[in-house]
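Re: Re: token formats

Sure, here are both.
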Amino acid sequence: MAKWTAKHEAPEPLEGPVVATVTGGTILWFALFLVQLPFYGWFADRDQLWWVWTCAAGGFLGLIGIWYVRGREAALKRHAEAAALAARAERAGQAGSAGSEQGPGQDSGPQA
């Protein structure tokens, strides 16, 4: 059996307001949990408590998600700043070495 190979190159991942999206989702899960709390007895009578606890779990897992994406955003920002600094240093190094190079026929001074 032949191994599957992609016909097209994979697209770049979508980047957007990841922290805001995860925060909004977390708030939504906690809001749903709080809205269902007054009906806890109704859910218990019908063996549907999983609805309440699913929302609570979603909210708490969302807190972990917020922590994770904030760290990811900070790491991406640090990486971009380091790459920009390295590029600036490389450009400055090339500009400095270009000024110190001598063209043909130029004397470098007395030689022993």
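Second one below.
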Amino acid sequence: MTAPVGIDALLERVRSGYDRIGPRAAHDAAGAGDALLVDTRYAALRDRDGLVPGALVIERNELEWRLDPQGSHRVPEATGHDLRIVVLCNEGYASTLAVDSLHRLGLHRATDVIGGFQAWRNEGLPVLAP
């Protein structure tokens, strides 16, 4: 059995295993077709703050089932384990844990947006009004 770890230590450990990207880099990669941008925010946040144009909305509780290329409930965009997935949550915390889970499924190019949707919006990147 492993010793208990706090959330801050867990986030640091998970993040040390991959390169996170900023909102502008996520926007550019998605716009160029180099990455699948996935918005995992729950409906109330999307209703309050708006949508990211072009992002695939998959709430966090369905993420693994929808993005597993071998899964029976996958979305058509889940084309293979080499797919570059960029996860966007509200502030960049839950997305780190989501990326860890995607890595465990073999989606080794998964990453997340530093600061999440809030950083995206603060950068002045496109948002569709609620």
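The chain has a mean pLDDT of 97. The longest helix spans residues 94-104.
- S.
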